Amino acid sequence: MEVSAKSELRRIFVDHGEAYGNLGDEAMLLSALRRLTKHLGPCIFVLPREENRPIPNLEGFIVETTPSPYLTFKAAIKGVSSFLSLIRCWFPGDETGLKLCYSWVTFLDRIGILKFCYSDYKRFLIDLARCEAFYGVGAADFNDFNSLGAVYKCWLYEIATRKVNLCIVSAQGFGPLQSGVLISLMSKVFKHLDALSFRDAEFSASFCRDVVPLSCPTQIVGDEAFSLPVANKERCVFHIQESGLEPGQPFIAVHWRSTDYTQETQKLFPKVANLYDAVVEKTGIPLLFVPMSYDVHSRIDEDCYFELRSRMKHSQNLHTLGLIQDTSLIKGIVGASMLTLGLSYHIHVFGLAQNVPAVITFSGQYYHFKSHGLIDFYGEPSAAHDIEQSSVMDVLLTVMYCLAEREN
Fold first, then answer.
1. H or E stretch covering 190
2. Is the dihedral of CA 13, 16, 18, 22 positive or negative?
3. What CATH topology corresponds to 230-403?
4. Would you state the torsion angle of the CA atoms of residues 68, 74, 77, 81, taken in this order, to the nearest 10 degrees?
5. pLDDT at residue 52, rounded to an integer
6. Contact 13, 133 (CB under 8 A)
7. pLDDT of residue 92
8. Sign of the four-CA dihedral 315, 274, 364, 333
9. Domain ranges in the chain with CATH number 3.40.50.2000
10. CATH number of the domain at 6-226, out of 3.30.70, 2.160.20, 1.10.10, 3.40.50?
11. Residue 45 region, left (φ>0) first, then alpha (ψ -120 to 50), else beta?
12. pLDDT number for residue 211
């Protein structure tokens, strides 16, 4: 978007998940920019970016990028990591390291060492200070498995509350959280925010209500990408047919990836392939694999598709969209499905936002909290299954129940 008088526009610093190549994170960013533009009019959005890592097509928005402060944070942490082993001899436990990392980077920032040593960080501070507001896009960064990333977010929010007049953090998902250091840091930082909203009531809002009482306004809003618009029907139909499905043919949208962010998931490929075969045999409905990531952070989902297909007895019934990086198009295609089945949080968000039931098959505690939080927000007939604990029959029965409910 070209605007002649850019200097008169509001400047908004938009902190996104920086899960580069993850279409769910891209959908949240796009949705946030659209919503901010709707309420505020055209703005200049300042986005942090790690070097040349992929970001979505942001045509239609006025966007400036600035060096990601995460790179400076990581570099500063390296300076203290050599001392951690010695300190843990005297003060055992990982939490000592988290507290030290936060204190060390905060100290280096406060005395000006970071901006003196890192020109990119100095530029980030200048760009941040020129903004009227700081907006934290929806994410699920605050958990024990991403403890250093959560410390980074606390550090970043603390800087933002000092540099910018208005700081709002949106649609956050929390958990699992047992770390006393993280809880203490979050409590300290969040109380200085101007507003904080949550994805769900079961874990996120209740966590702050029961463990970290806040003085800032809070609200349960669901996921950041719920309001993402969908592509027109003709485009969706074209791509569905390109996958090999017949015109008007019912299908189930499926997904799996090779990481749940706490562990690699290849050991579960045989079980997932057996589940796909069972669903096809029982329902007669073909499956459409929807890739949701295309970079190293969340792995390459197309690789999962080929691996799963090679393990299936009825592989001819598993189709794929291929890589589509238009999140509105993906959301529209998912909205045309009978139900969603799989791991990706946002494939289910896309479906549930359009009244498509979700059967979430997850592994690991990180996805446990995300999945059950989403189901709590929407309720039955959707359900979440830990694929490591549940049998193929357990999941199949839930699939059959959801399909039956759709017909009623």
1. helix 180-190
2. negative
3. Rossmann fold (3.40.50)
4. 180
5. 75
6. yes
7. 44
8. positive
9. 230-403
10. 3.40.50
11. beta
12. 63
Distances (CA, A) of 22 to 11, 30, 64, 77, 336: 26, 13, 21, 25, 22
* Residue ranges with strand state E in 207-351: 218-220, 252-255, 287-289, 294-295, 299-300, 318-320, 340-342
Two tokens, residue 6: 């850019």
Q: Which of 82, 72, 141, 164 is nearest to 109 (CA)?
A: 72
Distance between CA atoms of 378 and 27, rounded to whole angstroms? 20
**28/139 Cα distance (integer angstroms):** 8
Band of the pLDDT at 4, cuts 50, 70, 90? very low
Give dist(CA 224, CA 156) in Å, integer: 20
Provide the whole-model pTM. 0.89
pLDDT at 3 over 60: no
* Tokens describing residue 407: 């017909």
Kindly report the number of other CB atoms within 10 A of residue 242's CB atom: 12
